[in-house]
Specification:
By secondary structure, the chain is of the alpha/beta class. It has 19 helices and nine strands.
Length: 417
């Protein structure tokens, strides 16, 4: 049995009873399974309790943020095996990993490997951007294997119509479908800046205003919404992006690609974008869409996915620290104590990528003896400032008992998170 089977079956039964004794078609017409609909009725769902525990906040705060539209729990009722997560300014900053095949490259096994790397290294959601091959089969395989929410870009599949975006023309009809299945909108910005020269131009901001109008329409149906943002934005224009989204889109969660803060580094755009991502997360973006080293160059492979996820875990965590999220700095402090106390194995364990940290250390000092050494290969045994400090303290009669106790206390907090 999947995690959410009993939750959803109970909820469907309650709605069927509440909707009376009309025909099945009549009951289906008024069906609304969205988290927003339930939150606005004052219901605390199992998903809300689950998110509250993960975020270390009160369930009522989760419910109220969803009811007002400032947070979402993307939890399609047909994706029963996902572990609920929340996206919103009151929660920790999240990251998304894009995967998916193209018309020229990739297959199901490759995409499932990318999914595994995404989840293993810390992606909170994934989006399947497949544009070629047997898309329905690939998508079904990804959803069945994914413990995190999965998004798509359906306009890719409609481009052959050679018409204006039918999703805009039929928005109310789509809302009626979404609310039955608790599908969340990620209202995309087709006019987002593709270079820093385009940042904050008239077209981008005109579209942002339209997204705000669509947000209010979706909320009339109690359908959850987040807003997609740029893109390529120089550092001095990042705060403006958040301020205008908050104003024009009524504080719906802001979900941004990067942004890249310079256009000169193909092959390193996971870095150029993580710089902007950390800043826009600090200013109030709720979720950051990763960029891989292959951005603008080709379809990412599993290693590119790993590099993108790690870069964005750093960015999101830096934003949480800057926003003073409860407990956000505990892991930093614990790793700093491990470093000062020369507990090399705990340093590796507490890092975002333990395998890489250990491999880099062991490249020059591989023997187990060096896992207890009070130096690394950078400064050597004579010039390590932390070792010199400990020796100086020992000369004055001070030991490391207090630091070791603080370290132990932090480890309990981090490992219980």
């Amino acid at each position: 049995m999947a995690l959410r089977d009993a939750w959803i079956e109970k909820r469907e039964g309650e709605q069927a009873n509440a909707n009376g004794s009309g025909s099945a078609a009549d009951r289906e017409a008024v069906k609304n399974m969205s988290q927003m609909h339930l939150a606005r009725k004052g219901v605390l769902t199992e998903e809300m309790f689950f998110v509250a525990k993960r975020e270390k906040i009160e369930p009522e705060l989760v419910r109220s943020e969803i009811a007002r539209g400032r947070a979402i729990i993307p939890a399609n009722i047909h994706h029963r095996n996902l572990q609920p997560m929340g996206i919103g300014i009151a929660f920790n900053c999240k990251i998304n990993a894009n995967i998916g095949n193209s018309a020229t490259t990739s297959n199901i096994d490759d995409e499932l490997k990318k999914l595994h790397h995404s989840v293993h290294y810390g992606a909170d959601t994934v989006m399947d951007l497949s544009t070629g091959g047997d898309i329905p089969t690939i998508r079904k395989a990804i959803i069945n294997a994914s413990p995190v929410p999965v998004g798509t870009v359906p306009v890719y599949e409609a481009i052959s119509r050679e018409k204006q975006n039918f999703l805009y023309e039929r928005f109310d009809e789509i809302c009626k479908i979404f609310k039955k299945h608790d599908v969340s909108f990620s209202l995309g910005d087709g006019l987002r800046p593709g270079s820093i020269a385009d940042a904050s131009d008239e077209a981008q901001f005109a579209e942002l205003k339209v997204l705000g109008e669509l947000t209010k329409k979706a909320w009339e149906h109690d359908v959850q919404v987040m807003i997609e943002g740029p893109g390529h934005v120089p550092l001095d224009k990042i705060k403006e992006q958040v301020d205008k989204e908050m104003e024009w889109c009524h504080e719906a969660p802001f979900y941004t690609l990067g942004p890249l803060v310079t256009d000169i580094a193909p092959g390193y755009d996971h870095i150029t974008s993580a710089i902007g991502a950390a800043m826009i997360g600090w200013h109030g973006a709720s979720m950051l869409c990763y960029v891989t080293p292959k951005e603008h160059l080709g379809l990412p492979n599993a290693e590119d996915v790993k590099q993108g996820v790690i870069a964005y875990k750093i960015a999101a965590h830096a934003a949480d620290v800057a926003r003073h999220r409860p407990g956000a700095r505990d892991r930093d402090d614990a790793l700093s104590y491990a470093r000062f106390l020369f507990d090399w194995n705990k340093q590796f364990e507490l890092s975002l990528d333990p395998e890489t940290a250990k491999a880099m250390h062991d490249e020059s000092l591989p023997d187990d003896f060096y896992k207890e050494a009070k130096f690394c290969s950078m400064c050597g045994p004579k010039f390590c400032s932390m070792n010199i400090t400990q020796l100086a303290e020992a000369e004055s009669g001070k030991d490391q008992a207090e630091r070791k106790q603080k370290f132990a206390d932090l480890l309990v907090k981090v490992q219980g998170a």
